[in-house]
Amino acid sequence: MLKKIILAASLASLSSLAMAANPLSVHVLNLETGVPSAGIEVTLEQHSGNQWQPLGQGVTNEQGRIAGLYPEQRTFAPGEYRVVFKTGDYYRKVGHETFFPEIPVIFEVKNTEQHYHIPLLLSPYGFSTYRGS
């Protein structure tokens, strides 16, 4: 039993370390079912001039999370970013209609020393997001 507790604490520490190492994470919770939304593709783009430049992408895990969405090989820079949640593909996979095939969330990074967390609370006909921690 003690080994399981130590292992769980170690895994939690590693997860926290991974989040701290990457400046951007996302989390999707399904408000209709009350569980995390696994399998949602998420893209990250940075605003440059009049265009959005792709930076990275990922797919939410069983906990509805992507712990590190920002590319490791790039320096985190101040600016405008856009995270796009591909909710239409997700709802098609689960056999459900949705009004929002994509949900773009635009945010501004001013302090590159901080971690930015973008949670998405999702239902087929509505959503909410906020600056998480």
Automatic annotation (TrEMBL):
It comes from the Bacteria. Pfam families: Transthyretin. Substrate binds at residues 27, 65, 130. One of its GO terms (molecular function) is hydroxyisourate hydrolase activity. Residues 19-132 form the Transthyretin/hydroxyisourate hydrolase domain. InterPro entries: Hydroxyisourate_hydrolase, Transthyretin/HIU_hydrolase, Transthyretin/HIU_hydrolase_d, Transthyretin/HIU_hydrolase_sf, Transthyretin_CS. Keywords: Hydrolase, Purine metabolism, Signal. Residues 1-20 form the signal peptide. Its EC number is 3.5.2.17. The keyword Ribosomal protein does not apply. It catalyses: 5-hydroxyisourate + H2O = 5-hydroxy-2-oxo-4-ureido-2,5-dihydro-1H-imidazole-5-carboxylate + H(+). GO terms for biological process: purine nucleobase metabolic process. Homotetramer. Catalyzes the hydrolysis of 5-hydroxyisourate (HIU) to 2-oxo-4-hydroxy-4-carboxy-5-ureidoimidazoline (OHCU). Belongs to the transthyretin family. 5-hydroxyisourate hydrolase subfamily. This is 5-hydroxyisourate hydrolase. The gene is uraH.
